[in-house]
Design a protein that fits this description.
alpha+beta, 2 domains, 4-stranded antiparallel beta sheet, 24% helix, globular, binds FE2/S2 (inorganic) cluster, binds fe (ii) ion
Length: 467
């Protein structure tokens, strides 16, 4: 018989459910026992608190350098529910600005990407340099003659901190947030591997085309947790596997199937990040490429170079992961980043980009374009399987009966350990563990309940494993 649990999820200030009228996340997220109340996925007040406490404070993925190679180049991105501009100014400095005019809030940039000398607001013409300064207010000399204002104080709102990891640009609104490296913790190691080119060197990678964007009726957290390392959902992809184009079949792989598939290891960190690693057996090469001979040769040659350059580390593939809160990635097959931007509690705007080695021959890029779009994105067969699960799971949380029953995240409780090759808390196959997901929600609850970074306890390894 199902057990009905009483989780305090009151947000109206009733005793036991709220702290000064505010939602108390640790009452809803029991990460130590792997039980989470469904209302965190659909409640409007919880969502508002989430935007303030999680998205306004966290380091968020913005975009990639290859999207803005020249001075004046810009692309739009998002931080939480707000539009931001990623741009390179006339001197080549990279900035991230809130896409909101300081006069009356109109978007100063309404193109997804392009090159601009300045950002001219279409409402009343206030004009901002690509470095953010307010340079022109039409009619300024007359209108503000009696009461001039200091234009230097009315430039575009800029993020507090910005960081670059192998060309990926990250930013936070919070000046008191830890450094990007501390925020990433042991996951810095994983992202370095995931974002390196196929040969494991410092060669450049670049975006293939523009971001794909689409909206799904799902809460963003259900997307983030899926990519954090939900190993148990391969059953969802049975149909694409059957026709030979899924992630578990050699015909869907860019690196071919191996004699011995090696090991799988789940890794999480106290900062709430999670990744699933593939570990190749020592000395084994990929084989059985189901692609054209020149493309197969490219992957094989680069695989060999990677092993030479990285030694034992070259055996590690960060297959899929999530950087808290909402940046998810596939490290090699395919190599892509998905950001699940929140559009309210019940909708998520998905932004997916794909990467290729800059030096890869056109034939390889063309192969990857076909492979990526068949696998991921709104038309991707594998992504469609996932989305169907997330959409129904979110809808279930709105049921007046269903909302009383928590979700179960108990797989692999109390089994996390360490691994000689990988930093972080590790659980290895054949144990199917939900440690990464528990870790993500544990961090989410901590941030939801904390007033600021200063009051946020430094995470410990035990937080990461939720053992
Ligand atoms: S809102 Fe931008 S100039 Fe008025
Ligand atoms: Fe999936």
């Amino acid at each position: 018989m199902n057990r009905r649990i009483h989780i305090n999820l009151d947000v109206s200030g009733k005793p036991g459910g709220a702290d000064n009228g505010r939602f108390v996340a640790r009452d809803a997220v029991d990460s130590a026992n792997g039980e989470i109340a469904r209302r965190i996925y659909v409640d409007e007040d919880i969502y508002k608190q989430e935007i303030q406490h999680v998205f306004k404070r966290s380091w968020l993925y913005i975009g990639h350098e290859s999207q803005i190679p020249k001075p004046g180049d810009f692309v739009l991105s998002r931080m939480g529910d707000e539009s931001v501009i990623l741009t390179r100014d006339a001197k080549g400095v990279v900035h991230v600005f809130l896409n909101s005019c300081r006069h009356r809030g109109m978007k100063v940039c309404r193109y997804d990407e392009g090159n601009a000398r300045n950002f001219v607001c279409p409402y009343h013409g206030w004009t901002f340099k690509t470095s953010g300064e307010l340079m022109l207010v039409p009619g300024y000399d007359e209108a503000y003659k009696a009461a001039p204002f200091d234009k230097a104080k009315w430039g575009l709102v800029e993020v507090a901190q910005i960081a670059n990891l192998r060309g990926t640009i990250w930013a936070t609104w919070d000046a008191s947030a830890p450094s990007f490296k501390d925020y990433m913790g042991d996951m810095y190691f994983s992202m370095n591997l995931a974002l390196s080119p196929w040969n494991g060197s410092d060669d450049e990678i670049e975006l293939l085309g523009s971001p794909q964007k689409w909206v799904i009726p799902s809460n963003w957290k259900i997307v983030a947790e899926n990519f954090a390392g939900d190993m148990a959902h391969t059953i969802s992809h049975a149909s694409v596997d059957k026709v030979g184009i899924g992630p578990n079949n050699k015909d869907g792989m860019t690196e071919g199937r191996r004699d011995d598939p090696g090991e799988l290891a789940l890794c999480t960190t106290p900062q709430g990040h999670g990744v699933l690693y593939g570990i190749s057996p020592e000395g084994q090469e990929p084989r059985d490429y189901a692609v054209s001979p020149p493309t197969a040769a490219y992957f094989l040659e680069n695989w060999r170079e990677r092993q030479k350059l990285q030694g034992n580390k070259g055996r590690l593939t960060p297959v899929v992961g999530t950087i808290f809160p909402n940046m998810s990635f596939h490290g090699q097959q395919p190599r892509t980043i998905l950001v699940s931007h929140p559009n309210g509690p019940n909708h998520t705007e998905m932004w997916r980009v794909y990467f290729v080695d800059k030096k890869a021959p056109p034939e390889v890029k063309a192969f990857l374009r076909r492979y990526y779009t068949r696998y991921s994105g709104p038309a991707g067969m594998t992504e469609q399987d996932d989305m169907e699960n997330w959409n129904y799971a979110t809808a279930s949380c709105r049921g007046s009966v269903a909302e009383e029953y928590p979700f179960n995240y108990k797989a692999g409780l109390h089994v996390g350990g360490t691994h000689p090759m990988i930093p972080g808390v590790i659980t290895q196959h054949p144990i199917t563990s939900e440690q990464n997901v528990r870790s993500l929600y544990h961090r989410w609850a901590e941030m939801m309940d904390a007033e600021s970074w200063d009051s946020l306890r430094a995470p410990t390894a035990a937080d990461g494993g939720r053992q």
